[in-house]
Amino acid sequence: MQNVLAVNKCYNFLASFHRVNSWIKLI
């Protein structure tokens, strides 16, 4: 269960990073 939580946290981090990255490309 702890492993799933870690993967979910990592996925959220990657998703937010990707969103910020695409937002920077728009500028």
From TrEMBL:
<protein>
    <submittedName>
        <fullName>Uncharacterized protein</fullName>
    </submittedName>
</protein>
